[in-house]
Design brief:
alpha+beta, 3 domains, 5-stranded antiparallel sheet, 23 helices, flat
Length: about 850
């Protein structure tokens, strides 16, 4: 956890690598994932870089792999997972890899083309068989069939005797067409022939697969009788336009049967060939699927290596590659070892070496995380990536986030549901990590956050003594009734005086007697409201102290005097005193007090006292009561308000005047070189280069910035802090509001649903109805009180951390450390 206190210390390194060892060295660095390389060829286009040919070769290999993967998906062949991740191939192995992929792709393409041709032939033969089979419905045994077989190569012509008409030659065209096109096809034939075409059709009983669309369509066999060659050509053109397949069909029954036998034999042969082709294709794809995942990883790694080498610069003598990149300081030995291993693998005569160079650039931000802390770090990074080396709020968010959530979600029953769901995801994380659902992965990545939220909800639910809106009597109530029997039976409401009816204090949490009290909401209202103010002030004061840690780390000691101290005093003198009055009121006033001024009836309102303190007002107390809680309170409050008001000009003018004084002292020593002013960055009492850290939590002031801008900027920050102190304190009241609303919703759901089921007598189907009522209550409990209310409390907790807590010290102006890592590339998280 020490790594999360602030981001890793980074170093800008320069690498000198021999060309023959460049590939193997990059392979080792990719496995370690410790270096974020910088582009030293930004002025060179992507097509003019040294290794662009190798990158194109990798692109071609990826294209072939994608084609094979698509063919595997078409045949529903599962691609196995890689158990042992392969290392990048050596350059001499790339030729063999290209040859194998080329052979597999060529064979699959040939098999795919053969499959298309065979399926087309098979479909054509099937349609011809349907035409021949349906033709028996179009011809009769009395037809004249003395025509030669040479006359119906595509459409047989014959001359049947027509009563009342002169004998002439009559032809016909037979084919098959989609049923949805037939009626338009029929109208078109009627129009072009002016009614001189006689059309018959016979629908197929089952739909068939359309080779063009791949969908099943209904088809029908048709035959069109006509007279004349000119009309024949028109009919053929209409058939072509409507995608109607025309097939030869003899008018003789014997000739049709002979052709049908021939077609069935050819169909059997085609079916055999298609099955053998499919088996061969399946064997080729199955064998390719076994090695394809390893090839995919190898090609991705190889492409990443060459892409990274294109960021390097070649020296003038072309004897070494020079690269630059950011490396975590603690990982420098790992990088050096990786470069040494890369040189040793190729037996390089000159070992690659690494130099750390000084720079004024701001380094990237890198927070080392594990599976537990990664979720909390993602919550912080969603607001803004931390500036380099400033305090990381994620470390404290691991506790404060689930705790503040639980303050709003305090119910042991609901917390137990959340805890069980999180436990299931944690205990089965290996199996569930394979789930690719976007919504599920969103919850799964935060499983440890949900786990802690459930645990803290159990804790706060125990404090509130709330289990599905019901209370538990574990230690026995501290209240007891001293009224006689007649008083109890004759009064629906009785007041329990703490002086007579209270015996000690309930050992832990909320006394269960409050669940039956009429003033339960009034009591919980004040109790939770004061708790929210106390927790809010504690949280904000902790954030102000985090700014102190930033100032000390970046050696901005003047900001401690001119920003940290006035901010802390302003917060504590006003709202810290408000919290003090809450605690003092709890201790000073008691139901068993003998003095009337110290009884609960004379306890002043903290809110009225605080308003009078700010406005220097006065409220007349009740008879026998006192306006103030202790002696000298009026004078102390005046002093606190005056000091708090003086903190405002302290914050407003302290930093600008200190900067002006430094400029006056530095003016005689300003250095000019070639007419240009030498600019230095001042971040407090000492000048620090940006490599030592971007000032987090304070305001970095440039030496050449006009003083008017300095005054305006400081005025904005002062006004923002003063107003936000008030608004942020009020914002923590959401802890009180959501907690009270959650408890009341749970109670209303119990009274309106479950209580109705218990009130039914057994003889009227009470158990069955109770079973249905319980199902409804459980559904609404999970859907509304756990999921919807849980998400609402989560969002409010997130806002309290982002705005109220982190604004006190967190800048979030950094940029991410994105190292050259094979793991990141294979997980699709690598960005160029």
């Amino acid at each position: 956890m020490g790594d999360m206190f602030r981001s890793e210390s980074m170093a800008l390194c320069q690498m000198f690598i021999q060309p023959e060892a460049a590939y193997s060295s990059m392979a080792e660095l990719g496995e370690s994932g410790c270096v974020q390389f910088r582009d030293l060829n930004a002025q060179v286009s992507a097509f003019q870089r040294k290794f662009v040919t190798e990158v194109r070769r990798c692109d071609e290999l990826e294209r072939k792999i994608r084609y094979i993967e698509n063919e595997l998906r078409k045949d529903d062949i599962k691609i196995p997972e890689v158990l042992d991740e392969p290392r990048p191939p050596y350059p001499r192995e790339i030729i063999d890899l290209e040859a194998q992929l080329e052979a597999i792709e060529t064979e699959i393409r040939e098999l795919a083309a053969n499959k298309v041709n065979l399926n087309a032939n098979h479909q054509g033969m099937l349609e011809l068989r349907y035409v021949l089979e349906k033709a028996d419905n179009f011809f009769t045994d009395n037809e004249v069939i003395n025509l030669s077989s040479q006359r119906f190569s595509d459409a047989v012509e014959y001359a049947p005797p027509l009563p009342g008409q002169q004998r002439g030659q009559l032809g016909f065209v037979a084919g098959i067409i989609n049923l949805e096109r037939f009626f338009s096809f029929e109208r078109m034939l009627w129009r072009i022939s002016m009614g001189n075409v006689f059309l018959k059709r016979s629908d197929l009983s089952e739909p068939h697969l359309d080779a063009d669309t791949g969908k099943t369509v209904a088809q029908t066999v048709f035959i069109a009788f006509f007279q004349g060659d000119q009309l024949k050509q028109r009919i053929k053109k209409v058939c072509a336009g409507y995608h109607a397949a025309v097939y030869p069909c003899p008018s003789s029954y014997l000739e049709r049967q002979e052709m049908l036998k021939d077609v069935n034999m050819r169909l059997a042969d085609l079916t055999l060939v298609i099955n053998q082709t499919a088996d061969h294709r399946n064997r080729v794809l199955v064998s390719a699927a076994k090695i394809l995942p390893a090839w995919t990883i190898m090609v991705k790694k190889m492409k990443a290596i060459y892409h990274t080498l294109n960021l390097f610069n070649m020296d003038l003598s072309s004897k070494c590659l020079i690269g630059e990149g950011w490396v975590p300081s603690c990982d420098l030995p790992i990088v050096r070892d990786a470069l040494a291993r890369g040189s040793a693998k190729v037996d390089s005569t000159i070992t690659s070496f690494l130099n750390v160079i000084e720079t004024n650039e701001q380094p990237p931000t890198y927070n080392r995380t594990n599976k537990f802390t990664r979720g909390f770090q993602n919550l912080i990074d969603a607001y803004g990536l931390g500036s380099y080396r400033e305090v990381n709020p994620a470390l404290y968010t691991c506790i404060t986030f689930p705790f503040l959530f639980a303050v709003m979600f305090g119910d042991m029953g609901h917390g137990l549901i959340v805890l069980l769901v999180a436990l299931y995801m944690v205990l089965n994380e290996k199996k569930l990590s394979k789930n690719k659902g976007e919504i599920f992965n969103l919850f799964f990545s935060g499983r440890y956050i949900i786990l802690l939220m459930g645990l803290f909800s159990l804790y706060t639910g125990f404090i509130y003594n709330d289990v599905f809106s019901k209370s538990m009597n574990i230690f026995g109530s501290a209240w007891h009734v001293d009224y006689n029997t007649s008083t109890v039976w004759n009064n629906s409401l009785l007041t329990l005086n703490p002086f007579y009816h209270l015996d000690g204090v309930y050992p832990y949490g909320m006394d269960p007697v409050w669940a039956m009290a009429e003033n339960k909401i009034i009591f919980l209202n004040t109790y939770k409201m004061k708790l929210s103010i106390i927790f809010g002030l504690t949280h904000m004061v902790f954030g102000v102290f985090m700014s102190l840690i930033n100032f000390v780390h970046f050696k901005k000691y003047s900001h401690i005097l001119f920003e940290f101290l006035p901010q802390l005093l302003f917060l504590l003198l006003l709202f810290g005193y408000l919290v003090f009055m809450m605690f003092y009121k709890w201790v000073a006033y008691s139901g068993k007090a003998t003095e009337q001024a110290l009884t609960p009836g004379c306890a002043p309102s903290i809110l009225i006292l605080f308003i009078n303190m700010m406005l220097f007002g006065y409220t007349e107390p009740k008879d026998g009561c006192k306006e103030y809680m202790y002696a000298g309170q009026e004078i102390i409050q005046i002093v606190l308000v005056v000091i708090a008001v003086l903190c405002i000009p302290w914050m407003l003018l302290g930093t600008p005047l200190h900067e002006k004084f430094k400029r006056v002292r530095r003016a005689p020593r300003t250095a000019y070189t070639n007419g240009d002013v030498h600019i230095s960055t001042v971040s407090g009492d000492t000048q620090q280069p940006l490599a030592n850290g971007h000032a987090g939590g304070g305001h970095s002031i440039d030496a050449e910035e006009p003083m008017s801008e300095v005054y305006i900027k400081q005025a904005i920050h002062t006004i923002e802090y003063v107003l936000s102190t008030i608004s942020h304190t009020a914002s923590y009241l959401r802890l009180w509001a959501l907690s009270l609303a959650h408890a009341q919703l749970s109670e209303v759901l119990w009274m309106m649903v479950m209580q109705k089921g218990f009130m039914l007598p057994l003889i009227f189907g009470g158990p069955i109805f109770l079973y249905i009522v319980f199902a409804a209550w459980a559904f609404f409990t999970v859907a509304i009180l756990v999921i919807i209310e849980g998400l609402s409390a989560f969002l409010h907790t997130l806002r309290l951390h982002w705005v109220e807590f982190m604004s006190k010290f967190y800048e979030g102006l950094g940029y991410a450390f994105q190292p050259f890592s094979f793991n990141a590339i294979l997980e699709n998280t690598y960005e160029d």
